[in-house]
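Continuing the batch. This is chain 6 of the set; chains 1 through 5 are on the previous pages. Same settings as before, nothing changed between runs. Recording input and output for traceability.
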Amino acid sequence: MDLLVGLAAVAGGGFFGGVARWALSHLNSDTRHPGTWAANVIGSAVMGFSLALPNLWALAAGAGFAGALSTWSTLAKEIGEHIKGRRWADAASSVALTAAVCVVAAYWGMVYGRRAFG
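Output for chain 6:
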């Protein structure tokens, strides 16, 4: 029974994360990808926050919502497009900015999660 409840929590969170990811994908243009960047930053913050949540909520928020919202494979594809187009500065800034901001977002998500849930 616990396995089914855990799977339902992940599926429920994944549904909402997928809907949020779909909505953010409409922000992308040909060369700029703010929707992908926002999805990964928000997903990192939610993952950090979920570390302080009780078990089922952590599964729903972390594995479900943040897992469905974040899109590292799309980021890799977009960086590959920059490299193919020889837009080296765009590729480098995308990698550096995303990595740095996502680490900070995960940290602050964890800090606020601990403040909220001890």
